[in-house]
Design goal:
The structure holds 2 protein chains of 2 kinds. Chain A has 5 helices and no strands. The model of chain A has no long low-confidence stretch (mean pLDDT 87). In chain A, helix 3 packs across helix 5. Chain A is mainly α. By secondary structure, chain B is mainly alpha-helical. Chain B has one domain. Chain B is 89% helix and 0% strand. Chain B is built from 2 helices and no strands. The mean pLDDT of chain B is 87. The chains are: A mainly alpha, B mainly alpha. At the A-B interface, helix 2 and helix 5 of A face helix 1 and helix 2 of B.
Chain lengths: 131, 44
């Protein structure tokens, strides 16, 4: 009952800065670990590049759809979600086919950063004030 | 909190003979701890 109220209560969209900073901290913290443990640094570089690509695209699309926060904005957002997922999948599958160790390192690093961002996003959204 | 958990995982893993596994476990444990810490800190 309480969970139903939690999910059905509208809240304003939270800021994206804190979750993005969290992901950035995790990506940056991974570099010395890769160097210390002699893991493939190219895997870290690939994860960092994918993180920059995803957030750069998010930033551009957010600026594009801001004047039209309606159906057109939703279409732009949907395009962004699918485009990001397809590009990430294509790059990681191609890397896994040619350099499996690099792909595993990149996937683990990116997945940890993504999970941290997701957790922070959910926290700021559900912890925010209701409308 | 996240970095501390990773560091503790690295130390325990290094003592146990596999620093890499320790780092990964430290990160997996540290992420929810860090999210909870942010929640408590900002009370959002």
């Amino acid at each position: 009952m309480a969970a139903g109220g939690l999910f059905s209560t509208p809240r304003p969209e939270p800021g994206h800065l804190l979750p993005a900073l969290g992901g950035l901290v995790l990506i940056l913290a991974a570099l010395p670990i890769f160097l210390l443990l002699d893991w493939p640094v190219s895997g870290w570089a690939l994860a960092a590049a994918l993180w920059v690509f995803v957030h750069g695209l998010d930033y551009v699309l957010a600026r594009v759809r801001k004047p039209a926060a309606n159906v057109a904005g939703s279409a732009v957002q949907a395009f962004g979600v699918f485009f990001k997922a397809i590009v990430l999948l294509a790059i990681l599958v191609a890397t896994a086919a040619s350099h499996p160790h690099v792909a595993v390192a990149a996937v683990v690093t990116y997945a940890l950063a993504y999970t941290f961002e997701l957790g922070l996003s959910l926290t700021t959204y559900f912890g925010g004030e209701t409308r | 909190m996240l970095l501390a958990a990773i560091a503790v995982g690295l130390l325990i893993g290094w003592l146990a003979g596999s620093a890499g596994i320790g780092v990964l476990i430290g990160a997996v444990v540290g992420i929810p701890l860090a999210v909870f810490t942010v929640y408590r800190r900002y009370n959002v």
